[in-house]
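User: Sequence recovery, please. Input:
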């Protein structure tokens, strides 16, 4: 029988952070079956793992599409692999994914994910973010997955109410909205909107920080950050930029486990 878990990632408190489902498979499943399970779980991402000796194949599905990179569901997957004793706490966990090899380790209380940096690409024609977001915009950038829109204050990011219908028409995975804080405890805040991928707002988006880290490294002249994604649930992400890699740090807690009957 197939085991499935629900994990709150980038938090150590249940009912906060970003919920992900983690499905442990004994063999590869069909795309349509995984998509149906992700739709049934109805969280922003469901992760599917198949063990291959000392590593795992890992894929991620939203309720509507498969995606190329996901941080919080990878964090949740690593948490389950260690919590259920599949790997020892001191063992690194290699994940083979559509974005290459990703490594999870646990040097202390925090799980660390070694992810690729996802840098800027030419903008091309820029959507009307002032109209879509309903506020002034400081800067717009994009990578191969998402747009990034910088606002002038953290308060604007926190109180933002974008036009979801217009956001859904933008042909990217999602739109990151961010601002530096200028004060402790966090260096920058963000939110992530992806109605075109079936998620109006993702609570905490690890993979967005593969763009946010390099973006703020260039502007704040530092390489290590405490970041906060200020969705309704909220969650903290530790970010370190190491050349062409980004190290994401977070905690996770299991809130549900069960067995699929189909």
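Assistant: Recovered sequence (262 residues):
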């Amino acid at each position: 029988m197939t085991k499935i878990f629900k994990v709150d990632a980038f938090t150590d408190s249940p009912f906060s952070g970003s919920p992900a489902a983690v499905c442990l498979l004994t063999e590869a499943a069909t795309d349509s079956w995984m998509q149906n399970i992700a739709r049934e779980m109805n969280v922003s991402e469901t992760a599917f793992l198949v063990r291959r000796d000392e590593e795992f194949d890992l894929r991620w599905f939203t309720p509507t599409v498969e995606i190329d990179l996901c941080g919080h569901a990878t964090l949740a997957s690593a948490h389950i692999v260690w919590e259920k004793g599949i790997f020892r706490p001191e063992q690194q966990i290699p994940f083979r994914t559509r974005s290459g090899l990703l490594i999870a380790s646990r040097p202390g209380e925090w799980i660390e994910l070694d992810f690729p940096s996802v840098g800027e690409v030419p903008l091309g024609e820029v959507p009307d973010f002032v109209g879509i977001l309903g506020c002034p915009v400081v800067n717009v950038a994009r990578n191969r997955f998402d747009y990034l829109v910088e606002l002038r204050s953290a308060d604007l990011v926190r109180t933002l109410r974008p036009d979801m219908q217009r956001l859904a028409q933008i042909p990217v995975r999602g739109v990151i909205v961010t601002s530096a804080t200028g004060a402790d405890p966090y260096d920058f805040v963000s939110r992530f909107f992806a109605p075109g991928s079936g998620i109006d707002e993702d609570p905490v988006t690890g993979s967005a920080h593969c763009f946010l880290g390099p973006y703020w490294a260039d502007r704040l002249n530092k390489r290590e950050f405490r970041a906060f994604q200020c969705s309704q649930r909220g969650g903290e992400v530790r970010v370190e930029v190491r050349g062409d890699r980004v190290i994401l740090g977070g905690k996770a807690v299991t809130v549900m486990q069960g067995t699929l009957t189909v």
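Helices lie at 31-41, 72-83, 129-133, 154-159, 164-168, 209-220.
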